[in-house]
Amino acid sequence: MQRNKGARVLKNSPKAVRRKASAITIDDVAAHAGVSAMTVSRVINGHAGVRDGNRERVMRSVLALDYRPNLAASALAAAQHTCIALIYTNPSSSYLRELLVGALRGSTRAAAQLVIATWDELGSQQRREAARQLSNSVAGVILPPPLCESQDIVDTFVTAGIPVVSIASSHFSDRLSCVRIDDRQASHDMVSHLIAYGHARIGYITGDPNQTASAHRWQGYRDALADAGIGYDDTLVQPGYFTYRSGLEAAERLLTLPQPPSAIFASNDDMASAVVSVAHRRGLEVPGDLSVVGFDDTSAATMVWPELTTIHQPVAAMADTAIDILLRAIRHPASSARATVNHVLPYQLITRASVSRPLLAL
Asked: Which of 187, 266, 328, 360 shows a CA-CA span of 20 to 30 A to 72?
């Protein structure tokens, strides 16, 4: 697809990225993304027929340049009545990036305003007050973990009549919708994958205990061991909190066991990356001496060597779908669209170079 002849070339530099949003044009976004202005227009207006790769590049350029589309007046009028908030606290940078890409894609397509709020510095009481205040200005709310697990926060919005969609949580009820994957089955599949390679002593690093996904992934680990006739060994399970540092500490404990595991399954990619780092520091080859796998398929999975085998959780698609669910509830409040939804998206087991057969099985 040819680029418009009149398109100005925008160098991808910090200075260019810092230009005021009002000065950024559709041609600037096209040049930054390496696509035509027509492709940018089709993505922004939600048209089909754009390759996923091009769509992702455009949305990332929109975020990088802080581009604000000059929507038609009618779309702007509709957007004023459809303001959606995405609220987050302390996710990994790679996870947050995918959340923002998906939410921006969905809100842009639907001509809805998107408010992005971080509550990292707020205590419990301050978060409840922030939720009460936000209830006066938004029509719907998206809550990723761990906020979606907070009953107080959910109650505040629901009591105010604000539809809520949780992401990556199993807290589905008649009060809030959720968009998720089957974490338990995905974890089962990953452990089964390791077992198929001949691993029987498989270490596991749990996720943050304040998130329901953590319990489901741990249960999938146990299920797969039981299905293969492998006994559960509590010493092979170490606590983690979905942070890189917690992965470092858990890996050190697992690899100093008298009989260390031949494989380690960390319940997110940040912790799995930490395991690879500890293994290298201890002179272990991955996967020759130790196989390592993760979960989520964020950018962290491909920023280490070797790249990680992991579960692809479609975080951007989950946020995009959450926007659609909210808009149906907001714009058709008297219909069945207002009913809560338990939407399960498919996941994928992505195989890369971090798994091999254990040495004793060769």
From this structure: 328
